[in-house]
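Each record in this resource describes a single protein on a pair of labelled lines. An example record follows, reproduced without changes.
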Amino acid sequence: MLIYKGTMGFCCGVRRAIDTAINARSDKKVIYTLGKIIHNDIVVQGLQAIGILAVDNIKALSKGDKVVICSHGTTKDNFDFLLQKEVEVIDGTCPFVKKIHDKVYLDSKNGYNIVIVGDSEHTEVKGIAGWCNDNYQIISDIKEMDFSVFDKFSVVCQTTFPVHKYREIKKNMQSIATKLAKIVVFFDSICYTTLERQKEAAIIAEKSDVVLVLGDKSSSNTNKLYNIAKQKCPSVFLISNKSELSAIKELKISKLGILSGASTPDELITEVINIMIETNNNGIVEIEDVSTTKDSPNMEEVQQKQKNEKKEISMKEALKKFPPKTYKEGMRLKARVVSADNNGILVALQTAGKNDTGFIDKDEVEIDGNYNPENYKPDDELDVIIIRKSDKNDRTINLSKKAYDQLKIDDEKVKGILAGDEFTLVCTQEVKGGLLGKIGTYTVFVPASQIKMSYVHNLSDYLNKPLRLRALPPKDDEEETEKKKSRNPKRIVASQRIILEEEKMKREEEFWNSIPEGSIVSGKVKRFASFGAFVSLKYMDALVHNSELSWSKKKINSPDEVLELNKTYDFKVLSVNREEGKISLGYKQLQPKPEEIALTKYPVGSVLKGKVVRLVKFGAFVELEPGIDGLVHVSQINHGWIKSPNEALKVGDEVEVKVIGIDNDRITLSIKELLPEEPVAEAPAAEEDSAKAKDNKVERKGRKQKEEETPREYISSSSVVTLGDLLSQVNLQE
């Protein structure tokens, strides 16, 4: 079996922290470490056995206690608190981490926004953040970077962050910063031992059948090695103790790779290698060391290396030795025409006292595409922008004149935008709190709250899509702030929401004007309630109460007795309350009334059957069909006289009736007209009484005839008699 191994054991920073803790304990029985001194439980438990205890809560420490700061470092506030409490502090922070603390502390004071590339939950990153002012941000991906918060940034990195991922973030950050005209300085703070171990991980994994990564599962750098190896080899195992080797010993391995995290103790490494050698079936084992650094340098070597680094020189001296001649995509330059032909324009770029040449392709000269080389004479001065190369190996500086011309056109549009003109923009970058886009030389920031009228759950849904925008005026309190702090004049905060809200208000205004009381509207039944139905009228819902659904006297208990859900009907607007946003509709008003139905179905003279549904003093109500009743007056029940309808009828009786009249919404019915007439028995009376009655009848008839023959204009008020007088005369005559 061939075993490939890389750099093993503690890195110099971890070794220094452990040695510091052990040496500090020499004069005390018990000392403390602020948190776990390294991310390895085996080591932490071993230290605990000799009286070096980990404590997470600094408030638990008392005056006179001795505490060692772990290799990952801690915040400035923790240092200050411990010193104020008179706790003896021994700093075991890794020198590389300490340099990051010093860097962010100084840059933060000098007005930089600190960008920490790393895992926000890692102890080291939390410690670094504690040395910044409030103006910092932690990112693990370029999408999390917010360029809108500041104009200059200082970037540091967690010492164990994946190298390839950091380089990708750095490259993208540089590109974006150039486009946004932002200042970004980088402090490449990944530990060099981390770099070497990650390189070795890729090399070893590519050669091996199986790879064992030795270290604690909570260790960040150990997990990074595992992930790198997994990309090159399908069989990778993270081993925290020798008991986890049981399943691996059964595998047939010809090429084994062994990697070690920076906090892995030598004891675990030795045990694993010995066990794997013992389980080798062939008995022949060859170990190949592929580490790029054979021995981990001790701290004295690291400090000496730092002293041997180049001394800082002044900017003036640097410019003399290294004249700035770095051209980046997006830079705007002045160019002098050297020559022009059908292929394009050759120009000279003058920077830092040295001329360089660039080329403007014919397609990059004019916005309208009408390029004529005769229009460009030698020594003509042009405004140009550096554009991306099609071939990375091409050393030509590719330029565009039309891109610069477009910038000037867009900058001219900005005048109208700042004055309140609506404009359309495609945002190409997602940042914390919103989207970024470019128009001319200006950066446009659209806050997430200003994209639409409701909450935006996913900003990426609006990337690379046109937004209709309007610039937002500065807030009242910003004017005072601007006096104290310079505001980026090339930054526009814009909103699509205000446009959408204005359009909504306009639609609502038109809507309210289109529904006066009495108008007919069409709406879809949206939902039911016990008291009525809610109808969707384009921009809002209106209510149809149960009482407005039908002319029927029968109570409607639920609107689904008349209407169907999700079906469209015509309704009449009964009332409109714009202040409260309420609209009442009627459905029955557009339906035929009962008397209209009755005229059609039950004309006067019709004979039909019905059921007695209600008895009252003056008659009986008979239901002809559900919702349509008719009244049989007490006088129309029988030929004979009855005092109350319940003498002849009871509720529930089926009766045959005749329609004798329809007045408004009342149907008058008769039962007696369908009954045979009963013979009237003559009351016994004396002949003289009969004769007297006959004479009275003749007399009354004559008197009536005389009154009719008398002209009405000759009837005076004195001739008018009361009903009482007439009755008296009748009684006297009788």
The first strand starts at residue 2 and ends at 5.
